[in-house]
Design a protein that fits this description.
The protein is of the alpha+beta class. 27% of the residues lie in helices and 18% in strands. It folds into two domains: 228 residues, D-Maltodextrin-Binding Protein, domain 2, CATH 3.40.190.10; 239 residues, Dipeptide-binding Protein, Domain 3 (Dipeptide-binding Protein, domain 3, Roll). The longest helix is centred in the C-terminal third of the chain and has 18 residues.
Length: 516
């Protein structure tokens, strides 16, 4: 997304309004009828930066196998655990053909894990790794993108200059500017000021600021075509006894002293959805879900620019959405549930909200309502994500947080497999602090089912289960609309593509930017 390197496929919007793929580093993908493997045909003549030679199938093989925790158990790549259930390995068949060996076939196709629409692996140079070694490679960002890296400092900036030998230049893909600079600015007011003073042409601003900025001649860039869904994950509910992929027994702590946590193995024996802690925790979680003033939060925190939401991974505006899955706002009903669960006097709990402004605002607003109407005192944990995340990976956290996985995007197709990060299938990588049997079953069956109608029926079953258990509770959907100065761009805009990846605020395809 930064422009330093590219991926196998770009994303694009069809005239009918659906998202599909467009060749980038790969020209095509052919799936074998056995559903056991598929072959990528690569573009020829793609050059790496700094004279590191032509990209070949060996580089694609290396980039994915190095990232995948199956082929590289020491991988700390962001998608290490995501690739694990999908990819057994990538194999270079010849200089320009790469074979994807499925560990488990995925019906979501190349749009999901091999395009810029979602989270994939950027293609890096195997020669760099072979010649420089592990440590030096971490500082040598040699890609094939439109911009060569000059500076990349975590939590500060990315700076690149136009790559003279970019493969896309001959096809009209740019780059059309000499330099690209990205800056990490924590304060929203500072980002807005940079836009208004002309220091930046594009900026992430608060949604509440957009109407005023638009009145001043700025514009909202809506081409990513998605809203991100904010919700609360009720962590600590590790209900799977054996790993869905490995079959190995899982060692998990189910701390039922936390009122929202249930233990289906309470007292020994097999899984029982109605042990005392499972019944009481279900009531507690549903009490929380019925005690969120979604319309007020939408208006107060987003200035009304968004939609209320109830379920993870599904927009309430989807034609497939069923209002039976919704929790309204009913404090009396919620208090009755809490009383029935044995918490008439309330209790105290922690909620991780991170260091961002919006997360804190959500936590403060929801926490105030829970304390006022349920007697539940909420302590907001505002540590950095890098501090909180290890517990999600290790499956040790039981502190709820404002989120329920990366796939909370309104433009994810309804029939795409759900449940990955809510299950043991993602063990070894990122999860959302729970491992739920029906989530594992949902993901496994949906990912392997070629029939769309059957996947849609499975999707409905998934949301029915979550509506019953209230494990991931939706709050609202907010658009990811960067603010831009249209007067700075030739044509007032650029060819930004649809995507569901919120990194860099979904700003993408900057190789096509033309400034006046």
């Amino acid at each position: 997304m930064s422009g330093i390197t590219d991926v196998l496929f770009n994303s694009k919007l069809t005239p009918e309004g659906t998202v599909t793929t467009e060749p980038m580093l790969a020209l095509s993908f052919e799936l074998d009828p056995s559903l056991e493997f598929g072959d990528f045909t690569l573009r020829q003549g793609v050059q790496f930066h700094q004279g590191w030679g032509e990209m070949t199938a060996a580089d694609v093989e290396y980039s994915f196998n190095d990232a995948n925790s199956v082929t590289n158990p020491e991988s700390i790549h962001g998608q290490a655990g995501d690739f694990a259930p999908l990819i057994a390995s990538m194999e270079a068949l010849d200089a320009y053909t790469v074979r994807l060996h499925y560990r488990n076939y995925d019906s979501r196709g190349v749009l999901h894990r091999f395009s810029r629409f979602w989270q994939t692996a950027a293609i890096m140079s195997k020669n760099v790794f072979d010649e420089l070694g592990v440590e030096a490679t971490q500082d040598a960002l040699i890609g094939v993108g439109a911009f060569e890296n000059d500076e990349w400092e975590q939590d500060k900036s990315i700076v690149g200059h136009a790559f003279a030998d970019y493969w896309g230049t001959s096809e009209g893909w740019g780059p059309f500017v000499e330099n690209a600079r990205w800056f990490e600015i924590p304060e929203g007011a500072s980002r807005r000021a940079m836009l208004e003073t002309g220091e930046a042409q594009v900026a992430q601003v608060g949604l509440k600021d957009l109407p005023e900025l638009i009145g001043k001649g700025f514009a909202a860039m809506k081409k990513a075509e998605f809203n991100t869904i904010d919700n609360i994950s009720m962590t600590g509910n590790y209900w799977e006894k054996f790993g869905a992929l490995t079959g190995a027994e899982l060692e998990r702590d189910r701390d039922t002293s936390k009122p929202h946590v249930g233990d289906p193995f309470e007292g020994g024996g097999d899984f029982d959805a109605n042990t005392p802690s499972m019944v009481s925790s279900r009531l507690v979680r549903n009490a929380f879900a019925w005690s969120i003033q979604r319309e007020e939060l939408l208006e107060n925190l987003l200035g009304g620019l968004g939609f209320v939401n109830y379920q993870p991974y599904n927009s309430s505006n989807s034609p497939a959405h069923d209002t039976a899955w919704d929790w309204g706002t009913d404090f009396d009903k919620a208090k009755g549930m809490l009383d029935e669960a044995g918490y008439a006097d309330g209790f105290e709990m922690d909620l991780w909200v991170g260091t961002g402004e919006l997360g804190a605002e959500i936590g403060e607003s929801v926490g105030a309502a829970w304390q006022q109407h349920l007697g539940v005192k909420v302590n907001l944990i505002k540590t950095a994500y890098s501090v909180y995340r290890p517990g999600l990976v290790a499956r040790t956290t039981n502190t709820p947080f404002t989120g329920c996985g990366d796939e909370n995007k309104s433009n994810f197709p309804y029939d795409w497999a759900h449940g990955f990060v809510m299950s043991s299938i993602s063990a070894g990588g990122y999860g959302v602090g729970m491992e739920i049997p029906w989530a594992s079953e949902s993901y496994t069956k949906m990912a392997g089912e070629p029939d769309k109608a059957k996947r849609e029926a499975m999707s409905a079953s998934f949301f029915e289960s979550n509506a019953r258990e209230a494990l991931c509770v939706g709050i609202f959907e907010r658009p990811l609309w960067p603010a831009i100065d249209p007067d700075a761009f030739v044509g007032g805009t650029w060819d930004m593509r649809p995507m569901a990846n919120g990194n860099l605020f979904a700003i993408n395809n900057i190789r096509t930017v033309k400034l006046k």
